[in-house]
Design brief:
Radius of gyration: 16 Å
Order of helices and strands: HEEHEHEEEEHEHEE
CATH class: Alpha Beta
Largest sheet: 6 strands, mixed
């Protein structure tokens, strides 16, 4: 998606440690019009696949997933929570994932009443680096007996290999911008096409 690549180039900041900040439009301040066009791009890519639920992980994926859902017949959005709370009741699916950005492990939890056998799930997230968060969401789907129909990612850091590994396993991963390399000294970003 050229528009997203241009926004990353013009408004993104490359930092040491393979960090790409795009908080001006993607995951702190949200450009809802951009989110809508991203949802349209994913709807075109996943056309013909039956999507009954969209699953993401808190927090940055929620806004993107909610806007994208409008392009999938208003499929409900379920988000995996990163912490147990008094609002989570009943049976739950739980796994643990390692966050590249937070540099720590945390639990991810979905109430069993919101993810079921027979669900056809589209996973959506803002970033894909090593793929740990997505593997956690895939684990939750497998535990529920749900089918992962595809994975929609806004920005994939292709040089970290998570997306390529998931594709090699047969998952349909549609990343709208794949960063092939980035240099914190110059700020240069190269995209894969």
């Amino acid at each position: 998606m050229r528009e997203l690549e241009e926004r990353i180039r013009n408004e993104g900041t490359v930092r040491a440690g393979d960090v790409l900040k795009v908080d001006a439009f993607l995951n702190h301040q949200c450009d809802v019009g951009l989110f809508d066009r991203m949802g349209s791009a994913w709807a075109a890519h996943f056309a013909g696949k039956r999507i009954t639920k969209i699953l993401t992980i808190e927090a940055s994926g929620i806004g993107i997933a909610c806007v994208a859902a409008r392009h999938f017949g208003d499929a409900p959005v379920v988000f995996a929570k990163k912490a147990q709370s008094i609002n989570l009741d009943g049976d739950q699916y739980t796994t643990t994932v390692y966050s590249f950005t937070k540099q720590r492990e945390f639990p991810v939890i979905v109430a069993k009443k919101y993810l079921n056998a027979g669900d056809h799930v589209l996973l959506i997230d803002d970033f894909l680096a090593n793929g740990k968060a997505l593997r956690g969401l895939i684990d939750l789907c497998m535990a529920a007996g749900a089918t992962v129909e595809g994975i929609g990612i806004a920005v994939e850091k292709g040089f970290q290999g998570g997306g390529d590994a998931l594709r090699a396993e047969g998952y349909d991963v549609d990343s709208l911008a794949i960063v092939e390399s980035m240099d914190p000294k110059t700020g240069d970003i190269t995209f894969r096409h």
